[in-house]
Amino acid sequence: MTGPVVCTTVAQLREEIGARVTRGARTVGLFPTMGALHDGHARIAQRTRAENDLAVVSVFVNPLQFGPGEDFESYPRDLDGDVARLAEVGVDLVFAPSVEQMYPDGTPVVSVTSGRAGSILEGATRPGHFDGALTVVNKLFTIAAPGPAAELRAYFGEKDAQQLLLMQRMVRDFDYPVEIRAVPIVRSEQGLALSSRNQYLSAEQADHALVLHRTLRALAAGELTLERARSAIDAEPEVRLDYFVTVDPGDLSLVEPGPGTLALVAAWVGPTRLIDNMRI
User: What positions does the entry give for (R)-pantoate binding (predicted)?
Assistant: First the structure.
């Protein structure tokens, strides 16, 4: 099996995309990641491959998304393993730049700000996180732009619901010629939403983390109120709740649970912070 072409510079990726478009590719699928790929990522990569003439996956641990005391240095990195996994699903190009390649002058002077929608929920706990995510994806849209002869589609998982909304708003607000496609959450057999940070969990902590999915499901079924769902999470050993709310999925404003609303939860399980969500 021939693996994907690994591009490490902006110029190389643009050259590869341009050559494929010249040869007839009319749709380019872009899946931005920070690597440490798991089965959830593989599902999104499969969608990217199946729905486009050219499938591109970026693997870049973006320092702008990490705040003081967060795990940028220790964030798991395994480019060889990531490339092998992406080869299995037939991805064409992997973009794996260095920090210096993406930010040659250090922290960019001009960046994208996420506004009010990026300062609540995850943004309240991780100030600047979404500004960093939007800034790097803004760059990726520009780098991977195939020109007028082809269409660019970008793929994001629904697990990061707030990030997905902000990406959709950035495309709409800036009139980018990019279609955002959302991919449903992939879970373990027990229900835990797959995440690169799950590898930090011990077997016992992973069992405790199941309370997040369990309470989301109970809330969605009308078996628990929000207050009782929060209490159930607080009662679980090694789990410390950050927030459990229901929001309007269009703008993340807080609403009472009801049909069409989105339940969002974030909690620390031991030292590991996890998020999950479910549509009511």
Answer: 65, 163
